[in-house]
Amino acid sequence: MKAEISSRFSEKTEEECYNNFIELCKYYNEFHHDWNEANTRHHFINKFLNNCLGWPDDSFNLEEHINGEYADYIIGTPEKVIIEAKKEGVYFDLPPGSTEKPIQSIKTIFRGNDSAKKAIEQVQKYCSGKGVEYAVVCNGHQLIAFVAIKIGDSPLAGKALVLNSLEAMKQHFGVLWQSLSPLGISEGRLNRILTNGSATTLPPKPSSRLTSFPQIRYQSTLQANLRDFSELLIEDIVNTSDLEGQFYEECYCDTGALSRDALLSKRILSARYASLFPDTEESPRMQSVDTRESHEAIFSNDMLQEALSRRPIVLIGDVGVGKTSFIKNLFLRKASEEARSSILLFIDFGSQATLSGDVKEFVLDEVENQLFTQYNIDIQEENIVNGIYNSEIKKFKQSIFYKSADDDNGRDKLIISMLVEKVKNKSQHLKKVIEHLAKARRKQVVIVLDNADQRRHELQQDAFLIAQEFANSWQALVFISLRPQTFFQSTRSGALAAYPNKVFTISPPRPELVIEKRLQFALRICEGDIKHASYAGLNIRVGSMALFLRALIISMKSNKEIREILSNITGGNIREVVQFVKKFIGSPNVDADKIIDIMTREGEYFIPLHEFSKAAILGDFAHYNPMSSLASNLFDVHLPDEREHFLSTMILEYMNSEYSKKDADGFVSTESIEIEMQKNGFTIKQIENKLRHLNNKKLIESTLRVTFDENVSGLFGDMPHAFRVTSVGSYHTLRWLASFSYLDAMVFDTPIFRDSIFEEIITKKESFHIVDRFERVLKFRSYLTETWNKSGINVPYFDWQTVVERDEQAFAPIRRAILKMSNS
Fold first, then answer.
1. What domain of life (predicted)?
2. What's the DSSP call for residue 798?
3. What is the DSSP string of 649-671?
4. CB-based burial of residue 523 (10 Å sphere; 0-12 exposed, 13-18 middle, 19+ buried)?
């Protein structure tokens, strides 16, 4: 947003605005006599805002109705400044010395100055009702500007920029322009000039009173064993070469098969990579990969044309959607015949813990190593070197250097020396090796650069440039997988300016189907149906694992809610889904002993949904830890405003509702989000804080697929044009928001603005007993309800009380369990 503001108002520099102000002063001195309020606005303030500060005419909204009154000017979209205009005859008797010292206390201004006091209070009330942070009072020749909303403090207790005359405005024009120009307002310069930051602090979170936080919950011996087996059987199995073919045969799921249980419309899910490029920009043609077609379609004419045009084939997909699985399945199953007659070099950037040195050197070393280990091709072997450089040897034998040697031995040494120099140039030598293999052995060389998206942005660009070089000059068919945001940013910045004409997109498969197949495969290994040397002897030790896996499979098949949580909480990131299930098996927050005991006795157990929610929200910790949890605390606040407990949810619900204007791909403009939230009294700073946080926690995503950087002051970065809700965000509001598991976790991470409630919540803060937890949750929920009721927020798309009533039925089993405990 700041970048847009800067470019939009870049026509007028500070110097131009100053010169315009000098002309305006001349005009004022000649004609200002007896101007009424309308004349003051028309003849002075309009010109002042437009010519002297740089606000265009279309950024003014005049005479807007606010709570039965009318604000003279509301400036900006979204709204940034409210100006109260007074007639020229209304004189502000401002404090002595304000010409020399333009920063004055508002309380000082109020003393004996009823006209200024009334005007300041009036415009501050307008700002408070609209969520507009900055206010100005102006009568033509005098101006007062101040911060009208100070979260957790009275704005009328602060300071103001006071310019007592046109001469004072001229003298301090630099401060005036920096404070009230569009760019100055967007950067909050007036706030910094007047306050140097707010001293008001947030109230404490209950977690601040815990003896140990964050506290790891340690596993039992059984849980630790289950975790070890889950890593072995669910994750590591994929990388076992002897079982790899069978694994993909039995476990691979087609990409792009939209999850039946995702809480977003199929239209939005299918438009996963839409809107990467604005309509005004040239963009590459993108085509979805459909793995359900025959393998002839996988090696389509489109792909071959890309290869023949000496360009890499780019596979675009978000992290964890299954790009590696797609490539592996392509060569192990779909195109296995072609793969057997090819030389396939698979460069995995994700498998190396660190990449030291030059990226290209790493790739060249990997190519050399794989040629030797997989195809028994030693690039330094004498016969291969002689075959590759046969023409160069013949040419060298005709040279004067060769013939100047004294004998055959000397001539042979010259040839060897010449060949050694060529082999030392690894890049050119490997290129020659690849060309030789393609021509002499009639082998198609396929190079796959995979998992570069697990590395930093700069490395991904380097990988693409290497792929471009390989495809262009090595006569190889080159695949490279990239994140959509890397592709977008790089093509914009010019690093990937030579992007291919066609890009293939990979959409995630159904997460619940991926997990079900992996669990079945792991179970077959546990029970000995799949044999492999690496797992020999394990079957006598994994009885508990097999029972747990069976319970997990039974629960997933029978409970739609479990499939739903797996489909939604990771946003289609298959890698994260696998990680979550792996950690769920053996989680210290899951009662594995009870599950296995019941499975042993009864042969069947249905794991309840709240066990999955608890594992997702808490992970391996005793309390909610925002750094590691899959959940985000929607009730957290960044500024000392208790109404902010509901701002994150309001943003999500507004974006999901029929009341927001969405484009064809489900994106809602940032501007409309800010305007809507401002109507409810929230400032731009609060709104943008929440948007950045929601984005980084993956509850929403932007058109640019960016994440925001963080420093000691919080998240920062220019706001993208638009956002849309992800399945993660939808699950938070539709399933978690007022549930027991969610409230039970978030109570410790939420600042409590009422001391009495805070003390009640921490009374038994160390207790994990269900009775104490239940009482704590009820107090927390009541606190939120009271806060909502006094907030005055009334919007058609969200009501906290309705959400509480919706989720109340989930509290009934807990009440029954507590009652049963008390009666026993």
1. Bacteria
2. B
3. HHHHHHHHSTTS-B-TTS-EEHH
4. buried
Domain locations in the chain?
Answer: 2-195, 221-234+510-618, 243-393+419-505, 642-823
628 is written with which tokens? 């590691």
Residue (of 478, 444, 446, 432) closest to 345 by Cα position: 446
Architecture of the domain spanning 243-393+419-505? 3-Layer(aba) Sandwich (3.40)
> What pLDDT is recorded for position 540?
41
Closest to 412 (Cα-Cα) out of 397, 433, 395, 391? 397
Window from 102-116, 460-474, 646-660 with minimum mean pLDDT? 460-474
Q: Are the beta carbons of 103 and 193 closer than 8 angstroms?
A: yes
On whether the CB atoms of residues 77 and 671 are closer than 8 A, the answer is yes
User: Torsions phi, psi of 444, nearest 5?
Assistant: -80, 120
pLDDT, position 325: 83
For residues 355 and 461, the model is more confident at 461
Q: Is the per-residue pLDDT at 8 higher than 50? A: no
Residue 447 main-chain phi, psi, to 5 deg: -115, 125
- Mean pLDDT score of the chain: 83
For domain 2-195, the CATH class is alpha beta
Q: Is the pLDDT of residue 705 over 80?
A: no
- pLDDT score of 379: 92
Nearest to 519 by CA among 454, 584, 432: 584
> How does DSSP assign 370-426, residue by residue?
HHHHHH---TT-HHHHHHHTHHHHHHHHTSHHHHTSSSHHHHHHHHHHHHHHHHHSH
Number of Cβ within 10 Å of residue 43's Cβ equals 18
What pLDDT does 573 receive?
83
Give dist(CA 181, CA 54) in Å, integer: 6
Pairing of strands 313-316, 143-147: unpaired
Q: Output the six-digit token pair for 651.
A: 């943003």
Write down the pLDDT at residue 290. Answer: 58
Q: Which pair of structure tokens corresponds to residue 611?
A: 């066990």
